[in-house]
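Reply to dn_fold:

You asked what the input looked like. This is it:
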Amino acid sequence: MGVPSELNHEDASAASAPLNRTDLFWSWQSGYKHLRMDVAPEGGVLKPDNSTTTTWNIHLGSTGCVGSAQTGETVNCSADNRPIIELDVSDIANQQIVIDYGKLVENSSLLNDQGGAPGCMSGPTDLDCPDIFDALGMGLGENSDPTPGQTVFSVETL
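and this is what came back:
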C-alpha cells in the first residue's frame, strides 16, 4: 500500500494516471497520500477549542520530507509511512481483499478530534494517529516501534 519512493515526489499535475490525482497529493510534503479515507460523522467533529468541523480524516503519507524533486533534488523522508501488508491469497479468482474501516478506527473517536487537523494526518505528534498506525501494524514517527501485525486487511472467499 502506498506510492513507491521513486515515484512519490513527482509533479502530480504532469504525472500519468493514476498519479495525476491531485486530490491524493500532499503539497506540504510534496508527495502522495498512500491512503485517504475521509468520513463526515452526523453532527460533525468536535475540536479541542469547542468548534466543529464536518470531516474526520485519515491521510497516510510520508512525513519529515526534505528536498524538492521539482528542482532536481533527491527527496528524503524521515518517516515513509508505508505499511507492509502480507495476506495469503491462494485463489485470486475466488477471493477478495477486504479493508475493515471499523478495525482501522475502532480505538478512535470520530466525533472528537484531539487537536491539529481533524483526524490523522500522519504527523508524529498527532494524537489521533497512534491507534490508526497500530491498526496498520506500523510505528508512528521516525524512531517508533511498530505494533506487530495489522488488523485492517483480510482475505475473504467470494
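The helical segments are 101-105, 130-135.
Hope that clears it up.
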